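Feature request, filed as a ticket because there's no other form

It would be nice if the structure record came with a short human-readable summary line next to the tokens. Right now we just get the raw output. Example of a typical job, pasted below so the devs can see what we mean:
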Amino acid sequence: MNKVALVGRLTKDPELRFAQGTGTAVCKFTIAVNRRFKKEGQPDADFLPVTVFNKQAEATANYMRKGSQVAIAGTIQTSNYMKDEVRVYKTEIIADEVDFLDNKNKDNNSNGGNNTGTNAGDNDFGSVSDVTPLDDSDIPF
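Raw output as currently delivered:
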């Protein structure tokens, strides 16, 4: 089974491109993930390249910036190619899900406390209106 779940911070702003011919949105970025065990008390991290597609790619590029914390769920994909007669190996995360845990730009939102912009709780982009409230009296336990 090839499944990975990571939590980390973006090392730079995400790059959004559209595939030629199909127009599929492709977003690439790198996240820094802290290692569980540290050497001699010093923080240590891995820098992992992530690729995400379609609507999730567009949302990530629009709402995430350098330093934003994200949770990634997806698969690990490896590939290799020849460059200057040397075989180069590449490992990346293909994200199925990107959850926005915080947004470094939320402090820049100075509209008198009425935060109508995007924040960490708005990562489902409007699906909250699809939720039907449940009356607690209907629950059998």
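Something like this underneath would help us a lot:
The chain has a mean pLDDT of 80.
Residues 72 and 98 are 5 Å apart (CA to CA).
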